[in-house]
Design goal:
The chain is mainly alpha-helical and 371 residues long. The chain has one domain (2-370). The protein has helices at 2-8, 11-32, 46-66, 77-94, 115-130, 144-158, 163-179, 184-204, 208-216, 229-240, 252-255, 267-299, 304-328, 346-364; strands at 96-98, 101-107, 110-112. It has a three-stranded antiparallel sheet, covered by helices on one side.
Length: 371
């Protein structure tokens, strides 16, 4: 049984994950040291060392998770959902605040952002719900359970406020429901309702700084030293990289600290400045390959549960890639979404590793002859 499992293992996907993770930790180090720097100076950066540890720990956990049969998680659908929801609600009462949002729980020296593992909980529990035998999406009432299932935690996250992660929930849900057979009419009507709801939320629910972010990206020079500063510096960084890039550790906007959030939300700007158009393009191609490989695993999955997991993970990656890169080049609003596998952060990276561990498990257990 063990030999067959490793024979079915997707080593190409594994190597792609490892390569992007190593690339990401180098970028985190490059964006965290200042002045004359080199690979040897990386270990003087606490940020680099911490991210390196997260990568080592995350990759190990991912491989361990991948050998566990993913179908076992169906049995824990309700506990996973309730525990995730409880953590999200706890943030409202006991969470720590930063940058106008209350999103973190302090666990000793570690800060957990519950909305990150909540993405995995939603992918697993919604996939288990939709994979239930006999479930159909032919009628409107068939959509009530999945919409309520996702809507409750999504509203809690929106109130933190965390607009970006709540939008990820929509991307995950829409993708899984589409693959599960949701009708085009239902999709069109729900999209229209979503558009109307977005206008309502903008007018009456969003905080002033969120509204400013949604508007300022169109013309950041309206407030060059305030809300537009990040976008302006990001565009300068990417533009200054030109075709070949300035080289690792040689980015002026990065090394001289002009670029805010350079190792988290705006790390793609570092790629553009230090590796240029060529390096950024190659990175995007590898990342798109990662997403298509996840979808390939889903297509070859032995059951609908595995297929829905892969679709949800692929949707999460694709949405975050689109929004993260889009906001750095000023074609989308700044929403504070990290770039999975690349941006600095323990909660985000571990969430990414768990999701990929599940995908690798789907691949490893796709051969039904094992059982």
């Amino acid at each position: 049984m063990g030999k067959k499992l490793w024979k079915s293992y997707d080593y190409i996907l594994l190597l792609t994950i490892v390569a992007i993770s190593i690339f990401g930790v180098i970028l985190v180090g490059s964006s965290s040291v200042t002045g004359e720097s080199s690979f040897a100076s990386l270990f003087s950066s606490r940020t680099f060392v911490k991210q390196l540890l997260w990568v080592a720990f995350g990759l190990t956990g991912m491989v361990i998770l991948s050998v566990i049969d993913y179908t076992e998680w169906q049995r824990f659908k309700i506990p996973l959902y309730l525990f995730s929801l409880a953590l999200l609600i706890l943030v409202i009462f006991k969470g720590s605040s930063a940058w106008g949002a209350q999103r973190w729980l302090a666990i000793g020296k570690f800060k957990l952002q519950p909305s990150e593992p909540a993405k995995i909980a939603i992918i697993l529990t919604l996939s288990a719900t939709m994979a239930k035998e006999g479930r159909s999406l032919e009628r409107w009432k068939d959509l009530l359970v999945p919409i309520a299932h996702v809507g409750i935690p999504m509203i809690v996250i929106f109130l933190q406020p965390d607009l970006g992660t709540s939008l990820i929930f929509l991307a995950i849900t829409g993708s899984i429901l589409f693959v599960a057979g949701m009708r085009w009419l239902h999709m069109a009507v729900l999209s229209l309702v979503g558009a109307i709801g977005s206008v309502f939320a903008f007018l009456f629910l969003l905080k002033p700084y969120q509204k400013a972010r949604l508007i300022i990206f169109q013309d950041p020079w309206q407030d060059p030293f305030g809300d537009g500063w990040q976008i302006i510096q990001s565009k300068v960084a990417i533009g200054s990289g030109q075709f070949w890039g300035r080289g690792l550790f040689r980015g002026t906007q990065t090394q001289l600290d002009f670029l805010p959030a350079k190792n988290t939300d705006f790390i793609f700007s570092v790629i553009g400045e230090e590796l240029g158009f060529l390096g950024a393009s190659l990175f995007l191609l590898v990342y798109v390959f990662l997403i298509t490989r996840i979808l390939k695993v889903g297509i070859e999955a032995k059951d609908t549960f595995g297929r829905y997991i892969c679709v949800g993970v692929a949707a999460m990656f694709a949405f975050q890639l689109l929004v993260n890169v889009g906001m750095t080049i000023s074609i989308m609003p700044v929403t504070g979404l990290p770039l999975p596998l690349v941006s600095y952060g323990g909660s985000s990276f571990l969430t990414t590793m768990i999701s990929l561990g599940l995908v690798l498990s789907v691949a490893a257990h796709s051969d039904t002859s094992i059982f």
